[in-house]
Design brief:
This protein has 20 helices and 24 strands. By secondary structure, it is an alpha+beta fold.
Length: 774
Amino acid sequence: MKFRIQTKLLVYILSTSSLIYLLAFGYLSISDYKASTVEAKKLTDTYAEKYANNIMNELNSDLSIARTLVQSFSQYKSFYSANKQTIYYEMLRNVLEKNPQFHNVALNFELSEIDKKYNKDYGRLRFILYKSSGLILTMIDTLELDGDNVGGPYYDMKINPREEYSEPYLFSPTGSNVDQTLVSSLSVPIMDENRYVGLLQFDVNLERFKAMVNEIRPYPGSHGFLLSNKGAYIAIPDENIVGKSIEKMIPEENLEQNIMGNIRAGKIFSYLRNESDESSNYVSYYPLKFGNAPAYWSLGISVPYKVMIQKAQKNLNFSILVAIIGFLILALVIWLISRGISKPLIKTADTIKTIAKGNISSNLKLPTRGRDEITDINNSVNTLIDGLENNLKFALQIGRGNLEYNFELTSKNDVLGKALLDMRKSLKQAAADEDNRKKIDLKLNWATKGFAQFGELMRENTDKLSEFSYNIISNLVRYLNGSQGGLFIINDARKEDIFVELSASYAYDRRKYLEKKIKMGVGLVGRCINEMETIYMTDFPDDYMNISSGLGQATPKCLLLVPIVFNQQVFGVIEMASFREMEQYQIDFVERIGESIGSTISNVKMNEQTATLLAESKIQSEELVAQEEEMRQNLEEMKATQEELERKAMDYEGIINALNAVTLVAEFDMQGRLIEINRDFLKLLNKSKDEMIGTFQGAFAVTKEDRRNVFRDFWNDLRRGMIKKTIQHLVIKDKDIWLSEAYTPIYDKDGNPYKVLNISVDITESMQQNVMEN
């Protein structure tokens, strides 16, 4: 469907403006609604904070009174003297009289702290004052003389001293249900430095907070409530709920909102509660902190959410009404504007259609009366017509081949004009590229011809390196129209004396043999080898060639050194000099030729080495035949020797077995540690083999005098190859045993002693007989 411009203006602008208008008004209205809601919540939270601080101030005031009394009991050690009991009684009585919120007070002292003769860590004296029928009565008693009441509240405070308001409970001075009052026990420990001395306790009236909580009504239908640390209702308008636990009253809500966890953590929190009648209440909690007490209480306020946001809802309704009126005014204004724009634009559109069909003429120019945007559009169309006429003339001139026609852009943003200039530039570049392409083709043809020519040369004369070198360098100098050149090859025949030698040179179409050697790393040739990089020089002194290049006295205009590299290995250097500068494609050609030369030189060297190795191999083969005959004779001698050794080993084994059968045999290493022992020896010593292995020689001897020196001298003689004999006296299970021992070093194949053989004979009987005869 085709729309007129006026219709489009009405449809598009009105719809867009309406959307923006509605979004803006909607955003502002919703923002205002949210802000009003947040403000209402803040007001409720402020009420909770205000009343929580009021209650907290009163309870902290009671705590301050208790703290002041505790400070007054610092002279507790003289409790039984100086009339301290009467003084403490008067102090507590005065506090009860002046503070009606206190029902009673209990002052506890550990007996071990006030009675020096009492030395047990349990037992306490309790001093009680309580109100009854308008009077203040006194009671003194002793408790827990047989031991602490483990698990009781006093014991808990004793092992963990702290300031604390207990959970609320009902208290009656008469013991009747009629005059019961909701109280909380305020406990403040009496400490001497870090030592527990006693405990001061007040029963604090909590009924006084009911009126204060009932006053909390920030909105109609709202109410407040006070909760203990364990979630018990202390004050709430509904008296039937007082004393009950929030965990039992609203268990699901408690779990969902983590009410008890937040109260115990002392957090400020709030949430929206959905009621059974599909309404909702905003509930805000504020913590109550009492001195240094670790437990928090909490004051909560519940407000009907609909009442709380009533003002915000009213503001939102008013904003919607204003938005509707504004939308109607906006639609009227847009209709008037679109009507004034559409007429001149239709005429401009007709002109542009004519231009689009290719009809370019100055007669199509539009009137430029007025100073509004329509006039600016007409001026732009007229400028377009002038620019198109100018571009048309330029295009016609280019079509005729006149690439130098003078053409000026209509403006710096004249894209069509720039495109025509780029087209002319491209045509000029195409002509220049054609010339360059022809030059490149000539260079490629020259290089291809050269590669073919030198490839053929490298397949010839590969048996002799000197002839190969001369053919390459002479043809390379002539092919590049150079003046002179040289081919340097690394001579590594002797690894201890590696140098660079001039394998071939060429100068002025004459063969020129020069005996010239260059040390590795010296001059430009050495630098080219070390760096494995091409060196091209055009600026050097007249005498530079004689110093660095090693090619004579001529002073060329340029010098080129190219490393001969194959498989990352340098074989030499191509050095060329010319009286005219070389172009890059010529240098590239020499580098490519250098790679081929390197491959060929590698093959030539390999062929020469192969021939040398073949000659050496022939000589070595003849030597191997002679050595093989000599080895055969040596093997026969070794076989006879081995047979003799095996026979001797069998004899030695037989001797050892015989000795093991009739004597006591043991073996030691050269440090004197036992490494082997036969069964008869173990039986005599009444020891197992595991117990004996590793013990030192003489460990069971009776005589211990100066054993260290005797042991050292004894084994030094054995290490020198001496045979040692000794008589050793042992006591085994209170029985005297004498052994006649011989220690003989055993030698390895190199003639060095590596262990000692000990052969012992039991001579106990003969020794005892000699003793009896003497």
